């Protein structure tokens, strides 16, 4: 009888130890409450919310990531950070723009580093409206993005014509440059700050090589030569 109890006791200790080890591992690499860790799939985010859209709108968003003990796995995760759902982002920007009272129609194209917004507005202050549209977009995109706007219904069609293209399309850079150059003919709002122009491009700054402000310079030179 004593041997049986002793055997059961040892088995119980081993089972509890195993459970603790498993719980410890899950605490580090699995979901804990609303915390989603690096080993979880993206579709597990806030899975407790279900399809309740109202509840989703009210819930805070919280995500915690921890480094994986598997060598090289974090490289893949870093690559995922650079991935954006550009169509969803364009949708959000357009929806926000038409909340502005003067804006009646809006089309948005999100590229790998620019946001092009063409809209139709009934406004007495085109510059102020352009600034509102531009800044509403800037509040949603990564800081290295530049935003260009045009309050012309014709430009909406031009933006739409670019939508089937992507970063690998032949001549896409020159096409985007030409479109931006045309958009700069319209009010772009006010400067972002002392270091950034109206489109969020740094002037003589550390990120100047990422900007397209050479288009501004060429346009200014052309205007001065007239």
TrEMBL record:
Annotated stretches, region: Disordered: 191-226
Record-linked Pfam families: Spore_YhcN_YlaJ
Domain of life of the native organism: Bacteria
Acidic residues bias: start-end ranges: 195-212
Alphabetized InterPro entries for the sequence: Spore_lipoprot_YhcN/YlaJ-like
Protein keywords: Lipoprotein
PROSITE patterns for the chain: PROKAR_LIPOPROTEIN (PS51257)
Keyword Lipoprotein (UniProt): yes
Keyword Lipoprotein included in the entry's annotation: yes
Name the UniProt record assigns to this protein: YhcN/YlaJ family sporulation lipoprotein
């Amino acid at each position: 009888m004593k041997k049986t109890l002793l055997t059961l006791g040892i088995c119980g200790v081993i089972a509890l130890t195993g459970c603790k080890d498993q719980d410890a591992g899950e605490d580090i690499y699995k979901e804990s409450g609303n915390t989603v860790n690096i080993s979880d799939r993206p579709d597990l985010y806030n899975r407790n919310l279900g399809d309740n859209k109202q509840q989703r709108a009210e819930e805070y968003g919280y995500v915690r990531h921890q480094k994986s003990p598997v060598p090289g796995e974090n490289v893949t995760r870093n690559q995922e950070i650079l991935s954006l759902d550009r169509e969803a982002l364009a949708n959000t920007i357009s929806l926000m723009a038409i909340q502005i009272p003067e804006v009646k129609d809006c089309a948005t194209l999100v590229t790998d580093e620019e946001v092009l917004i063409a809209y139709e507005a009934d406004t007495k202050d085109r510059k102020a409206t352009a600034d509102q549209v531009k800044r509403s977009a800037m509040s949603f995109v990564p800081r290295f993005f530049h935003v260009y706007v045009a309050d012309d219904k014709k430009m909406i069609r031009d933006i739409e014509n670019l939508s089937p293209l992507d970063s690998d399309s032949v001549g896409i850079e020159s096409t985007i440059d030409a479109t931006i150059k045309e958009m700069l003919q319209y009010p772009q709002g006010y400067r972002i700050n002392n270091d950034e122009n109206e489109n969020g491009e740094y002037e003589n700054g550390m990120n100047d090589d990422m900007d397209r402000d050479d288009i501004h310079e060429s346009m200014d030179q052309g205007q001065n030569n007239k």
